[in-house]
Amino acid sequence: MLNNEQSKPLVLSIAGSDPSGGAGIQADIKTFHSFGVHGLTSITCVTSQVPGKVLNIEPVSINSLKSQVDILFSEYQISAIKTGLLFSSELIEVLLSSLDNYHMQAPLVADPVMVSTSGTQLLNHDALALYMEELIPRSSVYTPNLPEAATLLGIESEDIKNPSECANLLYEKYGTPVLLKGGHFKSTNATDFLVDESGIKSFSKPFSKRIPAHGTGCTYSASICACIANGLNLHDSILKSKHYINQSIAESFELTSGHFTLSHDNNGTNLL
C-alpha cells in the first residue's frame, strides 16, 4: 500500500460523471483541490447532462466499478470516502462488497443522490431498500435534502413542516448521523440540521442567490469529506463546508440562459 507522510490526504469520490463540469465527479475533484486534498475517483455512471437537463445515464459495468474501487483500496491509504450517484442495486452491492473485502475503515460521507433538479430519477427503485438498509448504516454521515429526506422516511415532501423534527426522525430511523440540508425549505436562511449522538445542531446562512445552482449537493458533501480528511471533526467540517458552499453559490455563474453552476474558485484551505 502506497503511503507518504509528506503527501496530501487522499479522498475518494464514488459517483457519476457530469460533462458540464458542475456536479458529480467533476465538482468533487474541484472541491477536493480547494481544500488541499488529493482526489481519487471511481465512476459509477456516465451522464449526458447540463444544468437543468439530463438526457441519458449510462451505468458502468459491475466489473468496471469493482476494478476501479479495488485497485484504489489495495494501493492507497484513503483518508475519507464520498458517495454520490450510485444508480442501481448492483453497483451498490459492488461497493459494499469491496468495503468489506478491504476492511475499509475510512469515514464515509453518503450523499443520497436520488432525483436531479430537473426531475430525472437517479436512483433505481430497486436500489432504494439496499441504500437504506446497508449503505446509510455504514456511513459516518449522510446528507439528504428535503425530497430525499421524504423518500427515506416514506412520506411526501409536503408533509414535512418542521425540518428539525424531520432530521430527528431520520436519526431515529437509521441511527446514523444525518445532515438535513435546508435549501428546499421556504425561509430567508438556508438552515441545515445535524443530528448525531450528542443531539441536534443547526448551521445557517442567508440565501445568497435564489437560483437553482447546479452541483450544490455534490460540492457540499465533497467539502465535508475533504474537511474530515484534513482532521476536522464532523461538526467543524460542516461549519467550514457551510461557509464554502455559501460562497460558491454567491459566486455562481451562468453557463447558459437561466442555468447557473457553482464557482469552485474560493480557497477552502483558508477555512481550515
How would you characterize this protein structure?
- It contains eight helices and eleven strands.
- α2 packs parallel to α3 (89-101), α3 packs parallel to α4 (125-138) and α5 (146-153) packs across α6.
- The relative contact order is 0.16.
- The two termini are 28 Å apart.
- The chain has a single domain (10-161, 211-266), classed as Ribokinase (UDP-N-acetylmuramoyl-L-alanine:D-glutamate ligase).
- The strands form three sheets. A six-stranded mixed sheet has the order 3-2-1-4-5-6, sandwiched between helices. A three-stranded antiparallel sheet has the order 7-8-9, with helices on both faces. A two-stranded antiparallel sheet has the order 10-11.
- The chain is of the alpha/beta class and 272 residues long.
Kindly state the percentage of residues in helix: 25-40%
Strand order of the largest sheet: 3-2-1-4-5-6
Would you count the extended β strands for me? Answer: 11
Helical stretch tally: 8
How many whole angstroms does the radius of gyration measure?
17 Å
> How would you classify the helix and strand content by structural class?
alpha/beta
| Mean pLDDT over all positions | 92
Order of helices and strands: EHEEHEHEHEHHEEEHHEE
Largest sheet: 6 strands, mixed
Spans of at least 5 consecutive residues whose pLDDT stays below 50 are: none
Which CATH class? Alpha Beta
The figure for the number of domains is 1
Query: What characteristic shape results from the CA principal axes?
Result: globular
> What's the end-to-end separation, in Å?
28 Å
Q: What is the assigned CATH homologous superfamily?
A: Ribokinase
Classify the beta-strand content into a percent band.
15-25%
CATH architecture: 3-Layer(aba) Sandwich
Predict the CATH topology.
UDP-N-acetylmuramoyl-L-alanine:D-glutamate ligase
